[in-house]
Amino acid sequence: MERFDVIGLGAGSAGAAVARRLAKAGRSVALVEADRVGGECPFVACMPSKALLRSVQVRHLVGRGRELGAMSDEPLFDDDEYSAFALAARRRDGIVHHRDDSAKAKELEDLGVRVVRGRGEASEPAWWLSMGSNTPTTT
Ligand SMILES: Cc1cc2nc3c(=O)[nH]c(=O)nc-3n(C[C@H](O)[C@H](O)[C@H](O)COP(=O)(O)OP(=O)(O)OC[C@H]3O[C@@H](n4cnc5c(N)ncnc54)[C@H](O)[C@@H]3O)c2cc1C
User: Fold this and answer.
1) To test ligand 1's pocket by mutation, which of 7, 9, 46 has the most ligand atoms within 8 angstroms of CB?
2) pLDDT tens digits for 33-54?
3) What is the CATH number of the domain that holds 16?
4) Which residue segment(s) compose the domain that 52 sits in?
5) Does residue 33 sit in the same domain as residue 46?
6) How far is CA 14 from CA 37, 39, 82, 90, 124, in A?
7) Is 77's pLDDT higher than 80?
8) Minimum mean pLDDT among 11-15, 50-54, 73-77: which range?
């Protein structure tokens, strides 16, 4: 059974930030992640929402092309709001679905953080994981 100074549940923005600091301070750290390292921000929240916002921003700017002196003719885009959203959503999905968490996991592992895949549960007096022989515990 591996033992660590600190075991964190969740390798989202918060868990990863704490793990990075602890590892740099010389503590042994394990981070347990049930889904993807990085948490919701890169996969379902910050990144995909900004991809959609970018499409809306560009659509808005193109619509103001004449006013801004950027084009002399009416803009040539499909003015159907539903189609435009479908295109923006497809772009967003393409950005997010082609990303995996390997780079984020490697960045933590390079700092010495042990990334453990699985769902953890806290149990007194130590933290344990329902992962059989992979189960780490605090020292
Ligand atoms: C639409 C949207 C847009 C956003 N845009 C921005 C933005 O532009 N900028 C910004 O700063 N913030 C943004 N946020 C907020 C940002 O996503 C969150 O603040 C951030 O993801 C929170 O990080 P976290 O680590 O606390 O939680 P999470 O990212 O949710 O990470 C928690 C992790 O813990 C794991 N986990 C949970 N329970 C267990 C368990 N028992 N065992 C193992 N693993 C477990 C989960 O699988 C998950 O990976 C946005 C949020 C939303 C909804």
Assistant:
1) 46
2) 999 999 999 999 999 999 999 9
3) 3.50.50.60
4) 41-97
5) no
6) 11, 9, 36, 29, 23
7) no
8) 73-77
